[in-house]
Amino acid sequence: MTNIGKCRYRSSFRRDAKSMANVSPGSRAQTQFIEVEGRRLAYRRFGSGMPIVLCVRFRGTMDSWDPLFLDSLVARGFEVTIFDYSGLGQSTGERTYSPASLAKDAIDLIVALRLGKVVIGGWSVGGMAAQIVMAKAPELVSHAVLIATTPPGPLIKPGEAIFYAMARRENDFEDFVALFFEPASPTSRAAAARSAQRLAERTSDVSPAVPFEWAAQQLGDAPKNPVFPADAVLQALKSTSIPVLHLGADHDIVFPVENWYALNGQLPTLHLVTLPRTGHGPQLEYPEASASHIASFVRARRPMPDRVFLSP
After folding, report:
1. Enclosing domain of residue 102
2. 8-state DSSP, 11
3. Is residue 34 part of a domain?
4. Quick check: bond before 229 cis, omega within 30?
5. Whole-prediction pTM value?
């Protein structure tokens, strides 16, 4: 949503950048590049252990992931890979927000880096891409971790119109709070300030922001799923043996978590975690708790054996 690293208020959040870079794997990781099918994908890879590949949000780049969230994943035994989509950030190629194309970027990167089976993760539109990865290339996926995204089925609750206004303009700190946190909560606003500081502390090797004018052209005119409902993806979720976690927020103005709860009983491997007093970026407000939920989920849940699910 926001190009938080390029907001007007960035300069006020640069203190302790050097000390953070010395201890933070996410902030210290250097961008690497790999040529795949005529385009160059930019990525960063750090940590060791279970590989997790994270697909970023709308208008996001590698630098939109909160370093404390990434570092908390590393501390819990993950090898983290983040990347810029084709044509965005530091990657080359044709830019688009078609979730199928974003999913292809992730699949191509997993294969090119020889990561084997990975935890596929995705935030917002990246979560839609992650679902498509799971549906199209299940052999590459051990678990799916979806953050503040939308399911592929019909919606019972649409997003709020205010998102569309903020998604079409350059964003400031108040937009950041309104999108990703709970603006009515002093505690949440304080968490937003801390997250903004962490996001601003990487000052070199930073991916260029996604042009908000171009991104605005990719949106429709009304709150809706831009690609979903997608019946093929929904059917894949209904029949998969891959464990799926959705990590959501109690006040997501983009993709209300209620749409996931409406699928209770229909998706056999779905786990739902909803964090309180926050918005479209629960891992920004609760970076360490989010990493702990993800780590516990991955450790505890193994792919189910193939089963036949009979309709009543």
Report:
1. 4-300
2. G
3. yes
4. yes
5. 0.90
Tell me whether residue 295 is in a domain. yes
Q: Count helices and strands (H / E) in the chain.
A: 13, 8
> Looking at the domain assignment, is residue 33 inside a domain?
yes
Domain count within the chain: 1
Residue 26 tokens, joined: 């996410």
| Dist. CA 260–CA 232, nearest whole Å | 17
3-state secondary structure of 24: coil
Question: Hey, how many other C-beta atoms are within 10 angstroms of the C-beta on 299?
Answer: 11
Interval 172-217: pLDDT, tens: 999 999 999 999 999 999 999 999 999 999 999 999 999 999 999 8
Domain with residue 153: its CATH number is 3.40.50.1820
| Whole-Å CA distances, 191 to 121, 180, 182, 282, 287 | 23, 10, 10, 11, 10
Would you say residue 198 lies in a domain? yes
What does the alpha-carbon distance between residue 191 and residue 289 come to, in Å, rounded to a whole number?
13
